[in-house]
Amino acid sequence: MDSLKKALLGLALVCAFGTVTAAPITIADYVNPSPDRTVTTNNPFTFVFDITDGAESYVAGVDTIVSAELKIHLMDNAQKGNETFTFLIGSGGTSQIYSAQNVNNGSQGQTYSINLLNALADLIADGLLSVKLSATSGNYEFVDATLIAKVEKGTVGNAVPEPTSLALLGISLLGFGVARRRRQ
C-alpha cells in the first residue's frame, strides 16, 4: 500500500509541472540626426538600428523577436514641393521596400509606421537593421526614426517553469527527505 501511495504521489508531481512562456518585453532604438538630414535624389541617407546594446538588449540565437515596427518621421517645412521617396529596410533577400509621396508641409511633418515583414528576418539574424532613405523626386527632411521590437527573453523554444510548480517540487522533495529520516 505504501508503494502505491508513493507511485500516486510521483504521478501527481509529474502531472503538476507546467510551463509558462515569458511575456515579451519592448526594446526600442532611436536615430535622431542633429541637424535634420536633407534627403534628395542625389543624397540618400543610410543608418542602422542596433537592439543588441543597452540595459535590455536582444541576444541573437537566444531571444525571440515576436514583432517589430519602424516609425520614420519626415518633414517638408520649407514647402519644397512634391516628392516621391523610398525606404529600403533590411538587406539582401530579407529587405523590404516602402514607397510613398508628398510629405506633409509644415513644422509637424509626418510619421510613417511600417510593420516589419521580410526585414524581420534580417533583424532576427543579428539584432541590426539597416535603413536607407532616398528620394526619387523632390526632397524632404529626415527628422528621426524609432525601431520598436517585441522580444521574448531566454533560450529560443524553451519555456520557463511556473513558480508554483517549482514550489510544489521543493515541498515534495522536503517531504521525501522527512519520510526517509523517519524510516531510519
TrEMBL record:
Alphabetically list the UniProt keywords: Signal
Any signal peptide, and if so, which residues?
1-22
Q: Which InterPro entries match?
A: Ice-binding_C (IPR013424)
Domain named Ice-binding protein C-terminal: which ranges? 159-182
Judging by the UniProt lineage, the source's domain of life is Bacteria
Listed name of the protein: PEP-CTERM sorting domain-containing protein
State the organism of origin.
Noviherbaspirillum cavernae
